[in-house]
Amino acid sequence: MIIGLHRHKEDNERKLEKFAKEQWQKTRAYLLSRYSLSEDECADVFQDSLIILWKNIKENKVEADGLGMSSSTYFMTICRNKTMELLRKKSKYMTTSYEINPSKEHCDYQGEQVEKILSLEDDCENAQKEKEALVRDIVKNLPSPCNELLWGYYGDGHSMKMLAEMFNYASENAVKVTKHRCCEKFRVKYSEMCKSLF
C-alpha cells in the first residue's frame, strides 16, 4: 500500500515536471511581451504558479492526469494573478522625480503603463476579462479578412508565414500590410467602444 502511494506521488511529480517543461517558453514569452517583466521576474512568477498548481493537485482540486490544454489555460490564469500581485507590489515602490500634471489636455500612455494602472484596481481580474471580451467582440465583428488575420495572429499565435499560407497571400509582407490596416480598423472601433463606455 505504501509503495503504491509512493509510486502515485512520483507519477504526479513526473507529470508536473513534464507540464512545466512544456509551459515554460510559452509562459515566459507571454509574460515578457504582455507585462514587460524581467527574466528573473518571469522565472519567479512561473515557479510560484507551479507551486500553487502542485498544491491544488495535492488537494485534489486539479487532476494530475489531466495536465493538458485545459490545465494550460488554468495555469496561465494563475500566472496572470501572480503577475498582478507582483505589479501591485512594484507600484507601491515606484517614485517619480518630476512634477505630475494630470490636468494636461492630451496624454499618451504606453500600453504597459495602462496595464499597471489597471492592475491597481481591486477587481482587476474582472476588468481584464471584460477587456478581453471587448477585444474578442470587436475582432469577431470586423469584416473579412481582418477578423481571421487578427485572430490568427493575436489569438492563435500564428506566424506571418503561416498566415500567408493559410489565407493564400503572395508573401509574408502582404500579410503584414493587411494586418497593419486591420489593426487600424480595430483601433478605431476600440476607441469608439471605449468612448461609449466612459
Question: What is the strand and helix layout of this fold?
Answer:
Layout: H1 2-35, H2 39-58, H3 69-92, H4 111-119, H5 124-141, H6 146-155, H7 160-166, H8 172-197
- The dominant shape is globular
Instruction: Enumerate the spans where pLDDT stays under 50 for 5 or more consecutive residues.
Output: 1-6, 95-106
Helix content: over 70%
Quote the average pLDDT: 76
What is the strand content? Answer: under 5%
What summary fits the major beta sheet? none
How widely separated are the two ends? 62 Å
Number of strands: 0
Q: What Rg do the Cα atoms give?
A: 21 Å
Class derived from helix and strand content: mainly alpha
Total number of helices: 8
Order of helices and strands: HHHHHHHH
Give a quick rundown of the structure.
This protein is mainly alpha-helical and 198 residues long.
Explain this structure to me?
The protein has eight helices and no strands. It has helices spanning 2-35, 39-58, 69-92, 111-119, 124-141, 146-155, 160-166, 172-197. Helix 5 (124-141) packs across helix 8 and helix 7 (160-166) packs across helix 8. The protein is mainly alpha-helical. The protein starts with a helix and ends with a helix. Residues 1-6 and 95-106 have low confidence and may be disordered. The longest helix has 34 residues, at 2-35.
